[in-house]
């Protein structure tokens, strides 16, 4: 027991060292010399950093002559490039919707519905609707967040919806079979692209107009 007490007393008298450096607790007192923050404030480095523009990402590309050039990402407008993947997905989805509406219309009016292969060929190859959808989506979808485009989508949804309701109640079944799929596809796309508040208002306008005309919605 006495040897243990002697070793503890010796350890307190002579702090442990590592490579000759004594091990002590760090000082909790305020620093007596300038800190890095004070030096940066004196040299106005913090103000210069705050006032400078945020860093930009540069892209390096190889020119045809073998030289390298950089493009600043901040100089590229977000609407300058066309989102080709979005355009492809929108066009494919709306084309499938057009095909589905064509099948439903044929099943509703046709006494002997044709085969799915003939309907698929008619709705995707011979019909100009997929090409029209591709052109409209390529032009309007990248700018769908702009206010003029939203106004255009609102009027487009009301016009397509009202025309579809009118054709379903007034035209002959052959005309309905030709008009309903493209009008329905255009109506759905315009509603999807419109802000939800405006979309609800446009649907209310079409429903109110159909009720005022005495048309049946279903």
Task: Categorize the overall geometry.
Answer: elongated
Q: Which strand order spans the largest sheet, edge to edge or round the barrel?
A: 1-2
Question: Any idea what the radius of gyration is?
Answer: 36 Å
Helix content: 55-70%
Largest sheet: 2 strands, antiparallel
What string, H for helix and E for strand, traces the elements in order? HEEHHEEHHHHHH
- The average pLDDT score comes to 76
Secondary structure category: mainly alpha
Number of helices: 9
Number of strands: 4
Unreliable spans are 75-80
Strand content: 5-15%
| N/C terminus separation | 99 Å
Could you describe the 3D structure shown?
With 218 residues, the protein is mainly α. The strands form 2 sheets. It has a two-stranded antiparallel sheet. The protein has 9 helices and 4 strands. Residues 75-80 have low confidence and may be disordered. The N and C termini lie far apart (99 Å).
